[in-house]
């Protein structure tokens, strides 16, 4: 049986650092096909509680890129795309109307497309990729996902994907592994898919800047984050308030999986009888900390590269050296100053 690992299973091992300061390392990333270059290798998730135009403009201003969700009609989608002031991905699904969405968005100037389905190692995704390439031409950047195996990534590459989105069932509001028994722990999935030689986006389960460094070191060129930015000001959705037991107000927003019952009710009148929800909806505290979250990611990436003795993300990948950690090692990695000793 193959052993598979994810973020908390490993730590990266430090190596000799040539660089005088964390300021000199380069945290930018370019995809293997030469179509996408980001100063910050971070994408925001195409979820209706994470990325609309406001988040796309925020993350774009930081050097990353937003991926608009697709759960709206085509006119709304075009209007939203036009409100984006920086390079932004748009998403499409796989049914026949989705090519109409792609056509309208391309006419509005979109050049970065994401084919977004739960299980992309599938015939209908391959066909959509080919149709989309025919529609958009060779210069458009097409990302497709999600997959979690070498065979899945290879299939998408062979159908014309430039960038491959990797991660099945690892997201923070995801229940796919519980509901279906399928998934691959994310670091193993990233390493496997990166062997195909196309750029990989590590998607799902990233909780902190250190997880981003691990994902990049294991072969991702970019990461996609949802929960790390959930509840912040640039996310869509209202700020809600309720009283806590002590009477103090608690301000929160909703963060929800795009395969949750709540999403199905809002957009499709409920979960179809042949399906089950594969995501959950949750309350997250309202936060005004998006600037700090991104600064923390940038600082973590800069430090991370120097711990790895690397000036670039590609060098970090070449020098990958890691250990699997014991339960005690994992505990030691967390703040434990106040832990009681018996
Ligand atoms: N990264 C992850 O682990 C996951 C992500 N998601 C997210 O949830 C959203 C909804 O996803 P999705 O349900 O794919 O979108 P859609 O509802 O648009 O479904 C995509 C198409 O794929 C078909 N399909 C066949 N088998 C499957 C399968 N096992 N899972 C999903 N679709 C299948 C669907 O047909 P039919 O509906 O008739 O079956 C449909 O035509 C997306 O944003 C997706 O990224 C969802 C689950 C897992
Ligand atoms: N299995 C499911 N995965 C989902 C769903 N909605 C979104 N997602 C995936 O999660 C990531 C975000 O993960 P996070 O850990 O950063 O919060 C997102 O990009 C999708 O790939 C869902 O309903 N089910």
From TrEMBL:
Name listed for the protein in its UniProt record: GMP reductase
Record function comment: Catalyzes the irreversible NADPH-dependent deamination of GMP to IMP. It functions in the conversion of nucleobase, nucleoside and nucleotide derivatives of G to A nucleotides, and in maintaining the intracellular balance of A and G nucleotides.
E.C. number(s) listed in UniProt: 1.7.1.7
Keywords from the UniProt entry: NADP, Oxidoreductase
Keyword Oxidoreductase: yes
Organism of this sequence: Pseudobacteriovorax antillogorgiicola
GO terms, molecular function: GMP reductase activity
Keyword NADP among record annotations: yes
Catalysis: reaction(s): IMP + NH4(+) + NADP(+) = GMP + NADPH + 2 H(+)
Domain IMP dehydrogenase/GMP reductase span(s) in chain numbering: 4-336
PROSITE patterns, per database record: IMP_DH_GMP_RED (PS00487)
């Amino acid at each position: 049986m193959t052993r598979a690992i994810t973020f908390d299973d490993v730590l990266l091992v430090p190596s000799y650092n040539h660089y005088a300061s964390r300021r000199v390392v380069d945290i930018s990333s370019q995809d293997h096909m030469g179509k996408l270059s980001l100063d910050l290798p971070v994408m925001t998730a195409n979820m209706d509680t994470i990325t609309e135009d406001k988040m796309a403009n925020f993350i774009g201003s930081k050097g990353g890129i937003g991926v608009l969700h697709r759960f709206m009609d085509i006119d709304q989608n075009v209007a939203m795309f036009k409100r984006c002031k920086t390079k932004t991905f748009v998403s499409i699904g796989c049914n026949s109307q989705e090519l109409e969405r792609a056509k309208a968005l391309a006419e509005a100037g979109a050049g970065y497309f994401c084919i977004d389905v739960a299980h992309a190692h599938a015939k209908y995704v391959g066909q959509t990729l080919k149709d989309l390439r025919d529609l958009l031409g060779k210069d458009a950047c097409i990302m497709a996902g999600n997959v979690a195996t070498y065979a899945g990534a290879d299939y998408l590459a062979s159908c014309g994907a430039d960038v491959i989105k990797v991660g099945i069932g690892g997201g923070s509001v995801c229940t796919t592994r519980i509901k279906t028994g399928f998934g691959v722990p994310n670091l193993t999935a990233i390493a496997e898919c990166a062997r195909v030689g196309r750029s990989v986006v590590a998607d799902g389960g990233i909780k902190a800047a250190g997880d981003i460094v691990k994902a990049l070191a294991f072969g991702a060129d970019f990461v996609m984050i949802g929960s790390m930015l959930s509840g912040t000001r640039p996310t869509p959705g209202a700020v809600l308030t309720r009283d806590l037991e002590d009477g103090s107000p608690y301000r929160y927003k909703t963060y929800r999986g795009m395969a949750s019952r709540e999403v199905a009710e809002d957009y499709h009148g409920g979960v179809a009888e042949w399906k089950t929800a594969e995501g959950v909806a949750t309350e997250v505290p309202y936060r005004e900390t998006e600037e700090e979250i991104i600064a923390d990611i940038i600082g973590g990436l800069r430090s991370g590269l120097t711990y790895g003795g690397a000036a670039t993300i590609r060098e970090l990948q070449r020098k990958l050296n890691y250990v699997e950690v014991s339960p005690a090692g994992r505990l030691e990695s967390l703040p434990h100053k106040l832990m009681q000793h018996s």
